[in-house]
Design a protein that fits this description.
By secondary structure, this protein is α/β, with parallel strands linked by helices. Among the domains are: 35-119, Leucine Dehydrogenase, chain A, domain 1 (Rossmann fold, 3-Layer(aba) Sandwich); 144-266, NAD(P)-binding Rossmann-like Domain (Rossmann fold, 3-Layer(aba) Sandwich), CATH 3.40.50. The protein contains eleven helices and eleven strands. The strands form three sheets. A six-stranded parallel β-sheet has the order 1-11-8-7-5-6. The longest helix has 23 residues, at 12-34. 41% of the residues are buried. It binds NADP nicotinamide-adenine-dinucleotide phosphate (NAP).
Length: 305
């Protein structure tokens, strides 16, 4: 409970700031050692205005930690082959260390094209089969940033997960499934619910921790939750021009002990996680590179600055 009554609000901003501060130091050290900045390529296919705004935010946050970002705009009429060629070029570019592709893609393009082409070493949003497989084996991997943000908020807020019953609502590859795996890693007892789950209400009433990643505005209401539960609301839905989550925040706040707000909960942390995975990718690529090639690259980078 917060000192003024009502549940504790698990706001993302202080956690994101903490993560970004660590990233900023690592970026400065990287730049001192390598002579150039880590760079994130953000690929936008087609002219989707909300995506464009979101990607501009990511580019700004790259700059805020001293990294650089490159917006790569691809025509919405491109073929799968063209998209594959663009991604292959970014894979090969030694001055690009992380790549994200804005979803959803235009309908005629396959997600598989992206997932199968991206170099796992630059896959800072954890969508490639290698990173997904490593995560499911409990090994070190780049993780889907939103899923990791959802769990990071709980861990960094000191919410006990060991032995707790956690229910994740949603089983997408980008949020629900990886969030469940990350909760397992924290020793929670995890159940994943989805659109075919029988008696979701009954299941949720057993949960100490709920992660809602459904994509339906205000879907989980207070009457579905156990008193004292901790809730992470991953949802981002626009209703009448406002952002609302997948949890009906007003009724949920009557019963839960802690909840992430929307907006201002998972979103900012997702962004910070992306940056932390970018600097990790850059550090690993530098460590893995043969010396001669690094010297040539450093020379090339100096020439660019
Ligand atoms: P998604 O791919 O559409 O997946 C939604 C999941 O919810 C599916 O597994 C679906 O089940 C399940 N579901 C749908 N209706 C349900 C119902 N009536 N009862 C139980 N489960 C139901 O969505 P997503 O990409 O995972 O995103 C989930 C939410 O997170 C969205 O609101 C999205 O906007 C938000 N999001 C937030 C961030 C952030 O940074 N905060 C980033 C990405 C996404 P089936 O598998 O059976 O269809």
């Amino acid at each position: 409970m917060s000192p003024r009554g009502g549940p504790r609000l698990l706001t993302g901003a202080p956690i994101a700031a903490e993560i970004r501060a660590g990233v900023k130091d690592r970026v400065a050290a990287y730049q001192r050692q390598q002579g150039y900045r880590p760079c994130l390529a953000v690929v936008l296919v087609g002219k989707d205005a909300p995506s464009f705004v979101y990607l501009q935010q990511i580019l700004r946050s790259c700059r805020n930690v001293g990294a650089s970002g490159r917006l790569v705009e691809v025509s919405g009429r491109s073929s799968n082959a063209h998209l594959r060629a663009v991604l292959s070029e970014l894979n090969q570019d030694p001055l690009i260390h992380g790549i994200i592709v804005q979803m959803p893609l235009p309908k005629h393009l396959d997600l598989e094209t992206v997932v199968e082409t991206l170099d796992p070493a630059k896959d800072v949003d954890g969508i490639t089969p290698l990173n997904a497989g490593l995560l499911s084996l409990g090994k070190d991997a780049f993780q889907p940033a939103t899923a990791r943000a959802a769990v990071e908020i709980l861990v960094r807020s000191g919410v006990e997960l060991k032995g707790k019953r956690a229910v994740v609502v949603g089983r997408s590859n980008v949020v629900g499934k990886p969030a469940a795996l990350l909760l397992l890693r924290e020793h929670a007892t995890v159940t994943v619910a989805h659109s075919r789950t029988a008696d979701l209400r009954g299941l949720l009433r057993t949960a100490d921790v709920v992660v809602a990643a459904i994509g339906r505005p205000n879907f989980v209401t207070g009457s579905m939750l156990r008193r004292g539960a901790v809730v992470v609301d991953v949802g981002i839905n626009v209703v009448d021009g406002s952002l609302v989550g997948d949890v009906d925040q007003a009724s949920a706040r009557e019963v839960v002990s802690a909840i992430t707000p929307v907006p201002g909960g998972v979103g900012p942390v997702t962004n910070a996680i992306l940056l932390s995975q970018l600097i990790t990718a850059a550090e690993r690529q530098a460590a893995a590179e043969p010396r001669g090639r690094r010297a040539r690259r450093t020379g090339a980078a100096h020439a660019l600055h």
